[in-house]
Amino acid sequence: MEIRGKIFTVLEERSGTSARTGNNWRCAQYVLETIEQYPKKMLFEVFGEDKIQSMDIKVGEELTVFFDVDAREYNGKWYNQIRAWKVEREQKIVSPTIQTPVPMGSFPTIPEVDALPFDDNNNFPF
Length: 126
Fold this sequence. Notes:
Blueprint: E1 2-10, E2 14-17, E3 24-34, E4 41-47, H1 49-55, E5 62-74, E6 77-89
């Protein structure tokens, strides 16, 4: 799935050590606000130090976030998990530069042409 919006806020990172593997982990959470008539906010997370660093998400950026949605149960309650796996930054469209008009005096002059020969039959010069 994907959603486009502007990063509204960056929450404090969480980290810890896995009880199962003993490996360290990091998780960053972000709030994205959609860009539409009635904006909505969505909380998503990026898991893993390498992904957090490579995505380098900052407040105010306009992004398209690609994510997976999953649900898990804990103590009889269900919780949604929205985890981003890729982000694309909006490309700024560069408008072409408008050239300033050239002053009249800078055009090359065209030599004047003397009278063109006319054909007696139709009075056209060609």
